[in-house]
Amino acid sequence: MLEQPFPSLPGHPHPAIIPSGNVRELWRMRGATDDLCGLAIETSFGHAFALELDHELVLLHLQPSIDVLIAYAERIQSALLAQGWQGVSPQSFIRKDHA
Q1: Residue 14 contacts residue 8 (beta carbons within 8 Å)
Q2: CA distance linking residue 47 with residue 78, whole number of Å
Q3: Which residue, 16, 21, 24, 29, shows the most beta carbons closer than 10 Å to its own?
Q4: What is the rounded distance in angstroms from the CA atom of residue 56 to the CA atom of residue 19?
Q5: 18, 41 contact by CB (below 8 A)
Q6: 73: helix, strand or coil
Q7: Could you tell me whether strands 35-43 and 22-30 are parallel, antiparallel, or unpaired per DSSP bridges?
Q8: Rounded to 10 degrees, what is the CA torsion of 88, 94, 98, 99?
Q9: 30-33 long-range contacts, Cβ below 8 Å, gap at least 24?
Q10: pTM of the full predicted structure?
Q11: Do residues 13 and 79 make contact, with C-beta atoms less than 8 angstroms apart?
Q12: DSSP secondary structure string, 81-96?
């Protein structure tokens, strides 16, 4: 039995995945109802690729280097375009993520 709340429950993100630095939007796609963003995130472990659907984090994948992250993001973007997602004008920016 747990004596304290599990740290990865909603509203209690695990410290290992909390962004420690900048978040850069790599691309944005428009689906039938929501936008999907590909993000590069600086974490305490290095870099991570994230997918954000309608402002909700749905994927966080740690990457060994920024070059691998960019290649991974480009493959995902190409696959989404092939499936009918629409690219949105680039709005690349750096932001401090809110915890």
Answers
A1: yes
A2: 21
A3: 29
A4: 14
A5: no
A6: helix
A7: antiparallel
A8: 110
A9: 30/85, 30/86, 30/87, 30/88, 31/85, 31/86
A10: 0.69
A11: no
A12: HHTTPEE------EEE
Instruction: Scan for tokens 């944005």, then name that residue.
Output: 28
Return the exposure string of 6-15: e unless at least 16 CB atoms fall within 10 Å of the residue's CB, then b.
eeeeeeeeee
CB 54 within 8 A of CB 70: no
For tokens 């747990």, the residue is 2
Residue by residue, DSSP assigns 21-69 as SEEEEEEEEE-SS-EEEEEEEEETTEEEEEEEETTEEEEEEEESSHHHH
Per-residue pLDDT of the chain (99 residues; tens, 9 = 90+): 344 443 443 444 444 444 556 889 999 999 989 999 999 998 888 899 999 999 899 999 999 999 999 999 999 999 999 999 999 876 543 344 444
Tokens of residue 56, six digits:
């909700």
